Amino acid sequence: MAEQGETPKIQIDSDWKNQAQAEKERLASIEQEKAQGGGEGGGPGQLPPANWDTLVGMMATQALLYMGGYVDPQTNRPMVDLDAARHQIDLVGVLETKTKGNLSEDETKQLAAVLYELRMQYVRVAQAISGGGGAGRAPKGGGIQA
């Protein structure tokens, strides 16, 4: 501590200054990318980022759409087309097959979990339709590929 009458000396940690400057530059770079349309995206009126999560999410959304997961804005009723849903799920399966060995562990687990959930939902919807008198079209060719 400084004695009475002396002004305290301020010590600045140069490592901290370097870290703060690096963070400032990183944030400026992100802002510049966003301004040029290449940033994180996903804001109102912007496209989501073109990455693995978006690709898998988009494909899963398409399958869920055809399994009644979304309401048709024109009819205000869920859309159910099990042939189209099965096709979308099979496309996710193709993605899994073609990317085998080229994904990180997290990406592999994510894709397997999405496929599992889509297949289980498909079975539930198909059973509900066959047992409930059939809104929508039943699958051709014996169901979904497991």
Q: How is the biggest beta sheet arranged?
A: 2 strands, antiparallel
Number of helices: 4
Tell me the domain tally.
2
The strand count comes to 2
Uncertain runs are 133-146
Global structural class: mainly alpha
Arrangement of strands in the largest sheet: 1-2
Q: State the end-to-end distance.
A: 72 Å
Shape: elongated
Order of helices and strands: HHEEHH
Percent range for helical residues? 55-70%
- Report the sheet-strand fraction: 5-15%
Rg measurement, Å: 26 Å
Mean pLDDT across all amino acids: 79
Protein model, in words:
The chain is mainly alpha-helical and 146 residues long. The protein has 2 domains: 42 residues, no CATH class; 80 residues, no CATH class. It has 4 helices and 2 strands, in the order ααββαα. A two-stranded antiparallel ribbon has the order 1-2. Strand 1 and strand 2 form a beta hairpin. Helix 2 packs antiparallel against helix 3, helix 2 packs parallel to helix 4 and helix 3 runs antiparallel to helix 4. The C terminus is likely disordered.
Describe this protein with a few key phrases.
146 residues, mainly alpha, 2 domains, two-stranded antiparallel ribbon, 55% helix, elongated, disordered C terminus
Secondary structure blueprint with pairings:
Blueprint: H1 14-35, H2 52-66, E1 67-71, E2 78-80, H3 82-98, H4 105-131
Antiparallel strand pairs: 1-2
Helix pairs in contact: 2-3, 2-4, 3-4
